[in-house]
C-alpha cells in the first residue's frame, strides 16, 4: 500500500484529535442509550431500529477517527484512514435513517433510505479503490458528502407536512453548517472544519 498520501500531524495535534474523538465515542454511546431507553418506553419499534442504526454509525465514525489519529506507523495509519473516510458516509446515512423512518411515510421513506444508503455504499467503495489517491479525488468525495447532506431537499414538501417547522428549520440549519464546514475543509482551514463536523483527513 502506498503511504505517502497520509497527511502528517504534529504529536500534539494527534493527541488532541485522539482525545476529542475518543470523547465522541463516549458521547455517542450515552446518546444511543438515551435514545433507546426513550424508544423502548414509548414502545416504538421503528424508533428503536432507526436510533440503533444512527448510534452504531456514530460510534463507528468516532472509533475510526480515534484509531486513525492514535497510530503513527504509516502503513497502519493508511489503513485506518480508509476507515476514517468511509465512516463519514456511514454517519451521514445513519443520521438520515431515524429521521426518515420516523418523519416520512410511503414511497418517500423508501426512496430516501434507498438513495442515501446507495450513495453511502458507492462512496465507501470509491474510498477503498482510491485509498492512495485521496487528495487527487478529494473533490469527488466532497461532492458526494454535500449531495448526501442535501438529498432531503427533494422531499422537503412532504416532510414539511409531517414534522414541526422548528424541526425542519433545525434540519436545514444543519445542512448549511455542514456545507460551510465542507468549504472550509476544501480550502484547508482545518480547525474550522472540525467545528462544523468535517473530520480530519
TrEMBL record:
<feature type="transmembrane region" description="Helical">
    <location>
        <begin position="88"/>
        <end position="104"/>
    </location>
</feature>
<feature type="transmembrane region" description="Helical">
    <location>
        <begin position="166"/>
        <end position="187"/>
    </location>
</feature>
<dbReference type="GO" id="GO:0005886">
    <property type="term" value="C:plasma membrane"/>
</dbReference>
<dbReference type="InterPro" id="IPR004254">
    <property type="entry name" value="AdipoR/HlyIII-related"/>
</dbReference>
<feature type="binding site">
    <location>
        <position position="69"/>
    </location>
    <ligand>
        <name>Zn(2+)</name>
    </ligand>
</feature>
<dbReference type="GO" id="GO:0140911">
    <property type="term" value="F:pore-forming activity"/>
</dbReference>
<protein>
    <submittedName>
        <fullName>Hemolysin III</fullName>
    </submittedName>
</protein>
<feature type="transmembrane region" description="Helical">
    <location>
        <begin position="110"/>
        <end position="130"/>
    </location>
</feature>
<dbReference type="GO" id="GO:0046872">
    <property type="term" value="F:metal ion binding"/>
</dbReference>
<keyword id="KW-0862">Zinc</keyword>
<keyword id="KW-0812">Transmembrane</keyword>
<dbReference type="Pfam" id="PF03006">
    <property type="entry name" value="HlyIII"/>
</dbReference>
<dbReference type="InterPro" id="IPR005744">
    <property type="entry name" value="Hy-lIII"/>
</dbReference>
<keyword id="KW-0472">Membrane</keyword>
<keyword id="KW-0479">Metal-binding</keyword>
<keyword id="KW-1003">Cell membrane</keyword>
<comment type="similarity">
    <text>Belongs to the UPF0073 (Hly-III) family.</text>
</comment>
<feature type="transmembrane region" description="Helical">
    <location>
        <begin position="47"/>
        <end position="68"/>
    </location>
</feature>
<feature type="transmembrane region" description="Helical">
    <location>
        <begin position="142"/>
        <end position="160"/>
    </location>
</feature>
<keyword id="KW-1133">Transmembrane helix</keyword>
<feature type="transmembrane region" description="Helical">
    <location>
        <begin position="21"/>
        <end position="41"/>
    </location>
</feature>
